[in-house]
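Build the 3D complex.
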Amino acid sequence: MLFAIKIGFRYFQSGGSQTRLTVISVAFGVTVYLFITSLMFGLQNGLINTTIGNSSQITVEPLEESARILPIAGKLNLSTVQPFNEREVTLKGYVGLLPRLDAIKGVTAVSPVASGAGFAVRGGQTRPITIIGIEEDRGTQIFDLRYVMSSGRLDLGGQGAAIGIELARLLGLKVGDKLKVSSSKGVDQVFAVNGIFDAGNINVNERSFYVSLMNGQRLNDMVGAVSRIELKVAEPLALDDVVDEVRGVTGLKVQSWRDVNKELLSGLSAQSQTTTIIRVFTMILVATGVASVLIVSVMQRSREIGILKSMGASTRRLQGIFITLGTLVGVSGALTGVGFGGTMVAILASIPGTSPLRPGYALPIELNFRFVFEAFAVAAGVGAMAAILPARRAALMNPVDVIRLG
Amino acid sequence: MLVDMKGVGKEYEGVVPFLALSEVNLQVDKGEFVAIVGQSGSGKSTLLNLIGTLDRATTGTYLLDGHDIAQVSDSQLTRLRGELVGFVFQFHYLLPDFTVLENVLMPKAATRTRPTKEDTTEAMRLLERVGVAGEKDKLATAISGGQQQRVAIARALMGGKPLILADEPTGNLDSVNSESVFELMREVHDELKTTFMIVTHDERIADQCDRIIRITDGKIVDDHPRVAASPKS
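Done.
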């Protein structure tokens, strides 16, 4: 095979502007491939982070209770079953579950939550709120309130509470003020506003009222129990195995972010498909570019191919020459493209700005070395594969025809 | 017997099938120096291609150095050709991206993994023999037409092939180069006893060969040894 590589390499060296142009077109193909992949990756990450980055990705809830119909011997039962709308079920044995959930591979955060409806009252104003009781350490691993504090700090100890900036505005509250909270279970308690946060979502800013887990349990009449356990995972896009394991460990109702964000999933899926289509077409362009230059090269060198055949060069060796040539064009173009495209993406990804999908940067584009490697491997592979047809054509040439007629 | 053809014919398929050769009976011994002459389109190059196994006969039997060409596979035929036959064409067809020495080594490289030190020594000896050893490191395109044809002869001789087939080897050269290239082939033949079969339409060249085969309309119409030695000019 050294023979084929040597001749293929020499053909590549002497290819002139024709080969250089093909290398440039492969490089641009790789650049487009890298750019599109990095942009779509950044967009996808941004969308996922914005949507589920600051919320539970897997939620463990109690099993819903339902009425059971007593069988009547020998008679057809046509009863209609009404769900227990008014019955609120809680997780009583949650303390024992926490270490078991912590131990599941892929789970990065576990936070028990005691939540329920209530009202915040101050002066003559009353606003509906959702009382959310969390353990400060665990809860901040799901949604780190400390990073979104617009004033004060996160301190849920004692009678401390953290409220949204919108609720604070509506009730005229500032850090250090006190207010009364009445829960739907008829429990009243006075809280001190230790922190005011801006979660970037008007509903959360207006409704969420964070207190300690203990206060949440007391207000919602679920002492020793919680409403749900929230989990975060290392790979939000591939959490099916973790969901199954959580379901196996708890035996409870387990929902993932996928179950409650079907529209987002469908959007992400459409985006992925579009990216795949663009990538495939880019690589088809690369392949046709390489194939066309090789076909021309085979035509130009047909007499040389005939001579090599007359010398006893086997079909495999002749094919090897053009596959080497195609691989060299692919690899050179891929290296140039990876260098150029990688630098361009790295520069674009480092421009500071205010992208809503990538805080701190202007564009939601992220360079991932996996993509760089993938772009390189795909272009080099496509170059080699694009050479197969011209190589076969060369190998099937009749030496008599090409030597005499060209 | 190096070349042994019995009743060989070659018909090209097409809308109108064309019979290029018919009923060729030809025997050539090792060490002969043969001219094949005829008008354009008479079938002489077709005959040379069949002898060189670049093409297969449609009828008859052909034994090359005892091997029945009809019975060997394409890959075996390629290997056999690489071992037994060297070609010299009207146009030298040297590989332009390679040096003179690399071109001479090409038949070895084409059939092996890598030419050996002995191969390089042989190539250098052949280049010296054809008078272009001083140009060994130049690209094949950087030497004159006469020199290129000499390199092509050295390439054909590489590996000690017993049969050299030359298709109008002097057809593209001026009279001086034409004469010297022919003389070179003659000298190589005398020294190495290599069998030469030269297709030419130049009667002066043919007259200097030991045996002249004349083809007309795809048939051998005359096959005789040189009757009287033609005086060399």
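Chain A has a mean pLDDT of 86.
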